[in-house]
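Backbones bend. To wit:
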Amino acid sequence: KYGEICHMFEKRLDALRDIEKKHLNLLINLFDEHKEMEDVIFHMINEK
C-alpha cells in the first residue's frame, strides 16, 4: 500500500514538472515575442 502511494505521488510530481516546463517555455516564448516587437517598434520610431 505504501509503495502504491509513493508511486502515485511520483507520477503526480512528474506531471507537475511537465506542466512547469511547458509554462516556462511559454513564458520564454512570450518574452522573446515581446522583445522582438520592441525591437521592431524601436526601429520604426528611429526611421522617422
